[in-house]
Amino acid sequence: MKIAIVGTGYVGLVTGTCFAEVGMDVTCVDIDQRKIDNLHKGILPIYEPGLDEMVKRNVDKKRLHFSTSLKDSIQDAEVVFIAVGTPPDEDGSADLKYVLAVASSVGEHMQHPLVIVTKSTVPVTTAEKVRNALAEQLAKRGSKLDFYVASNPEFLKEGAAIEDFMKPDRIVVGVDRPEAEELMRKLYKPFLMNGHPIYFMDIPSAEMTKYAANAMLATKISFMNDIANLCEIMGADVNMVRKGIGSDARIGTKFIYPGVGYGGSCFPKDVKALIKTAKENKYDMRILNAVENVNESQKEVLFDKVNKHFNGNLNGKKFALWGLSFKPKTDDMREAPSLVIIEKLLKAGASVVAYDPVAMNEAKHTLKDTIEYAMDMYDTLNGADALLIVTEWPEFRVPDFDEVSKRLKQKALFDGRNIFDPQDMKKIGYSYYCIGVKTN
Whole-angstrom Cα distance, residue 14 to residue 157? Predict the structure, then answer.
């Protein structure tokens, strides 16, 4: 089965590579010539554990191809996936110009019936806009070719995307024609053979499912951060509370870890887009408005602890920062809490030396020379007034505290991910601050 994936970003490249892995003939298309040239050289535009090996394997087996020509790539395809970006507009709505540009281009060049699938995260009613863009181009050509539109939202976690695609919790497909369902069932047959569930539904429901899923997960995070802040005020330990509520099967243990807020390419953008969609339809998403407000303020909590510890005088102070990406196992810094924390430290007159196992290049691109960059986690500490932990990378979990203490000016540690035990830190003489536990 031949398919084309338009867009070689996170979703497009992972989707195309994983389909190739199960035997599909896949062409990934992008208008960025540099991206395509780099992919031909084995240089990927994103970091995702295991993806580079999988790309190389499938390129070598001639199942995975890269091209800048949409026209050529769809000539023998049965299914075309749209997996381009949907960045937020200034008002929070999803910008669909890239999605609709692809749809128009497909309509301009298609020579046989196709299933056109939106894989990008798009608001409800996007499929109709895609359908109209396709029909408009076909009409200009005087063509009566049939086509089918479908929605197939992705549920990939950065850092675990290959596992999520190859062993999905569920596959959601929105269709409105039996022909589209038949082709999509055929496409996903290798995954269904392993017992992974597929849910066919109407297209608006599929489009909404993606937003509802991300909004629910974002809600759990913000709720737990709100509880953590109250725990700290009241003298409760949020880590104990988390265990107490997580044992309830109706609540579960996932996404109830307190911290410095969520970031990344999905949750912030999708929460904003869902709020905007509701407003456009004269409905107020009261819970999601609160989720967004809590998350924005939570990104400032660690800075506030630092500022209070130093009595509001951070001018001339130097801070070591471990972790820049919004979560471990990715170099993605979009909406990362580290950006807010760094900005506030710099505005207060402090300097920052940072280290991240993967995101250093991305950080240099984003932050440029506003901060210093260390070669390893311990080099950040030299002469620093305190250490801030912002991303819970595994290598930060068991540091050599003798080495940390030797290099820091004073034993002050601000743990934005609660990876250490407050009592252990007290025993070794640290002024230790974390989230949701009253420690000092």
Answer: 11
Phi, psi dihedral angles at 107 (to 5 degrees): -60, -30
DSSP of 154-209: --PPTTSHHHHHHS-S-EEEE-SSHHHHHHHHHHTHHHHTTT--EEEE-HHHHHHH
Is 266 noted as a catalytic residue in this protein? yes
**DSSP of 7-57, one letter per residue?**
--SHHHHHHHHHHHHTT-EEEEE-S-HHHHHHHHTT--SS--TTHHHHHHH
Cβ neighbourhood burial of 223 (10 Å; 0-12, 13-18, 19+) = middle
200, pLDDT greater than 90: yes
* Predicted TM-score of the model (pTM): 0.91
Position 215 pLDDT exceeds 80: yes
Place of tokens 């070689």: 8
Adjacent-strand bridge partners of 388: 321, 414
Other C-beta atoms closer than 10 Å to the C-beta of 274 total: 24
Residue 4: helix, strand or coil by DSSP?
strand
Q: Is the pLDDT of residue 89 over 90?
A: no
Instruction: State how beta strands 412-415 and 431-433 pair.
Output: parallel
| pLDDT at residue 438 in the model | 87
What integer pLDDT is reported at residue 440 of this predicted model?
A: 74
384-402: pLDDT as tens digits: 999 999 999 999 999 999 9
pLDDT at res. 337: 97
- 245-267 in b/e form (b: 16+ CB < 10 A) is eeeeeeeeeeebbbbbbbbbbbb
How is residue 268 annotated by DSSP?
A: H
> Phi-psi region for residue 47, left (φ > 0), alpha (ψ -120 to 50) or beta?
beta
Residues 274 and 211: their CA atoms lie apart, in Å, by: 7
List Cα–Cα distances, 371 to 130, 224, 319, 350, in angstroms. 43, 31, 10, 10
Q: Please state, in angstroms and rounded to a whole number, the distance separating the CA atoms of residues 118 and 126.
A: 9
How many CB atoms are located within 10 Å of the residue 123 CB?
Answer: 21
Catalytic residue among 18, 28, 231, 266: 266
Q: Mean pLDDT, the chain, as a whole number? A: 95
Instruction: Provide the residue type at 9 as one letter.
Output: G
**Res 86: pLDDT:** 85
Q: What are the angstrom distances between the C-alpha of 115 and each of 2, 30, 111, 427?
A: 12, 19, 12, 63
